């Protein structure tokens, strides 16, 4: 399968072409329940991750929420 280049949290990263956000988060071993994902300036709702395909040049920001008090 071919690779594409994206920017993830300011760092360039090669990923499989036609990957969706849910699969990307899984591959990065991130705890999906505590994440917010922004793609090209738009926050993507978690329910939309499986049908949101990542494309060459996309800029993705992943924010991990930390609880505390």
Description:
- There is one protein chain.
- By secondary structure, this protein is mainly beta.
- The chain has a single domain, classed as Beta-grasp domain (Ubiquitin-like (UB roll), Roll).
- It is built from 1 helix and 5 strands; from the N terminus they run ββαβββ.
- Strands 2-1-5-3-4 form a 5-stranded mixed β-sheet, with no helix packed on it.
- Strand 3 and strand 4 form a beta hairpin.
- The termini are far apart.
Q: Which helices and strands, and how do they pair?
A:
Elements: E1 3-8, E2 11-16, H1 21-27, E3 35-39, E4 42-44, E5 59-64
TL;DR of this structure?
With 69 residues, the chain is mainly beta. Helices cover 10% and strands 38% of the residues.
Descriptive labels:
69 residues; mainly beta; Ubiquitin-like (UB roll); five-stranded mixed sheet; 10% helix; 38% strand
Number of domains: 1
User: What structural category characterises the helix and strand content?
Assistant: mainly beta
Strand percentage, roughly? 35-45%
Under CATH, the topology can be stated as Ubiquitin-like (UB roll)
Q: Tell me which CATH architecture applies here.
A: Roll
The total of helices stands at: 1
CATH class: Alpha Beta
Report the CATH superfamily. Answer: Beta-grasp domain
């Amino acid at each position: 399968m071919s690779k594409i280049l994206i920017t993830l949290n300011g760092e360039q990263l090669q990923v499989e072409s036609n990957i969706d956000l849910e699969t990307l988060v899984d591959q990065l071993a991130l705890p999906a329940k505590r994440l917010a994902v922004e793609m090209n300036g738009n926050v993507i709702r978690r329910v939309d991750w499986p049908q949101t395909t990542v494309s060459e040049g996309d800029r993705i920001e992943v924010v991990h929420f930390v609880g505390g008090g």
